[in-house]
Structure formats: C-alpha cells, structure tokens
Amino acid sequence: MASSGTSRKRSGMITEINVTPLVDIMLVLLIVFMLTANVISRRKAIEVDLPRAADAATLEAPPLAVTLTREGALLVDGEPANEAMLRAAVRATLTKNPKAQAVIAADKQTAHGRVVWVIDLVKSLGMAAFAIEIDPAQLVAPTDPGRVP
Questions:
Q1: Strands lying side by side in the sheet with 64-68
Q2: Helix, strand, or coil here: 114?
Q3: I need a surface site. Which of 20, 51, 88, 106 has the fewest CB within 10 A?
Q4: Can you state the angle between helices 83-96 and 112-124, rounded to 10 degrees?
Q5: CATH number of 64-132
Q6: Pair type for strands 129-132 and 79-81
Q7: Beta pairing, strands 64-68 & 74-76
Q8: How many CB atoms lie within 10 A of CB 132?
Q9: Does the global pTM surpass 0.85?
Q10: pLDDT tens, residue by residue, 118-136
Q11: Domains in the chain: boundaries
C-alpha cells in the first residue's frame, strides 16, 4: 500500500512553482543592468573636458547652452552651429524670456579668445546673464605647457 501512494505522487501534477531558476535569472538581470547603467551614465554626448573649480553653483536647465569643443566646433543646445545660428538662438531665447541666461561650456584646451568671442557676442545681443560651465571638483591649477619647471 505504501508503494501505491508514492506512485500516485510521482505520476500526479506538479502544483508548486520552483522559484530558484526565476531568482537566478533575476539576479543575473540585476547585475547586467547595474553594469550597463554605470557605463551609460558616464558617457557624454559631447566630449568636453571642462575646467575644474572648488566652488560651483548648480543651475536648473539652461535656456541656452553654448558649447565649444576642443576642435573649435560651436554647438548651440547640442546642435552644430555657426555665428549666424548662435545669434538667431540668442535672439529667440531673449524673445521668450528677456531675463534668460546662457551657459557656456568650453573645453579647457579651447583658445581663450574663442571663449571671449562667444561671451562678447551673447552680451552684445542683450543677454546680460551668462555662466561658464565647470567641472565641480577640487580646484586644480592648469598646467602651462610652455613653462619648464
């Protein structure tokens, strides 16, 4: 009789769910998401090596973002632009909000004159408020490649 009871258990339907493979798959997915999220969050759309400063204020999303790359390219709100397009973007931003602010991000290898040109152009069109984007890290003195210690 005991043997007939065990044969009935073996031939019957499985009514419990085995959660061990489900947990294994979920842990693997969690690890994959953690690794890929770290890589994605460190990637920037525009590669700009920003200067560093010890004291930096955090701004909300800027109405006008101007970027100067190491190669000298000018980008307005992440899109490639020229002087005429920058002028048009400043005017359009000022019509929407007369107190708008421009945030200028320039690679630290960008020529100083090019950054001053952008600041002068933005101010000459009536945008009095502007900020220079920096890397909010510990202040590091820039190196002088022409100077021998």
A1: 79-81, 74-76, 64-68, 101-106, 129-132
A2: helix
A3: 20
A4: 40
A5: 3.30.420.270
A6: unpaired
A7: antiparallel
A8: 15
A9: no
A10: 888 888 888 878 787 776 6
A11: 2-42, 64-132
